[in-house]
Amino acid sequence: MQLSAPAILVAARPHGETAVIARMLTEESGLVAAYVAGGRGRVLRPVVIPGNVVAADIRAKSDSQLPFARLELVRSRGPWLSEPLPAAAIAWATALTASALPERNPYPTLYAALGGLLDAICSSEAARQWVEALVAYEALLLRELGYGGERPAIADLGQALEILDRQEGLIARYLLADTRTDVLAARQLLRQRLARMIE
């Protein structure tokens, strides 16, 4: 495997003393996992943050081997991780993507939609401006994997939150059935923070 492409980093798990196993969503190759040497070191630690856009150079000697990756930061989501609501939304969107998608299957529509959602979260002044994009991304993910219907029409924030609540059951049943419950915990934290907006 040889791949050089922009990617959205969706998960990073420590490996050994200083390395990281990074999972990245690319437009043409889908979700790809790779070993990043020094990923927890001073230089790369700010790069391997879920939500960041990276230029990935991924190489493996055989298809059965975990690829090695060199990453260069293209766009950082780090500044928004100190804000509770954007941080929760970024954590949920990336964790859902990393957990739900099968590896090495291209989903160009999801790649574009996730990039757009993360951009909306990071450029909007308030969550009201990106909640609809989050609802649409979840619905698109369900649809792309064969479990969804049409994109929901959303009139206001209250309706968006109702749809989020309805979609949680589908996501838990179909997309996260074989994963650990801590993935849904990220969604529940986001939902609690969104609920404060209409109190």
From TrEMBL:
Record bears the keyword Transport: no
Biological process, per Gene Ontology: DNA recombination; double-strand break repair
Keyword Cell wall biogenesis/degradation set for record: no
Record key words, sorted: DNA damage, DNA recombination, DNA repair
GO cellular component: bacterial nucleoid
Domain named DNA replication/recombination mediator RecO N-terminal: residues: 1-69
Domain of life: Bacteria
Pfam families named among the record's database cross-references: RecO_C (PF02565), RecO_N (PF11967)
Family: Belongs to the RecO family.
Protein's name according to its UniProt entry: DNA repair protein RecO
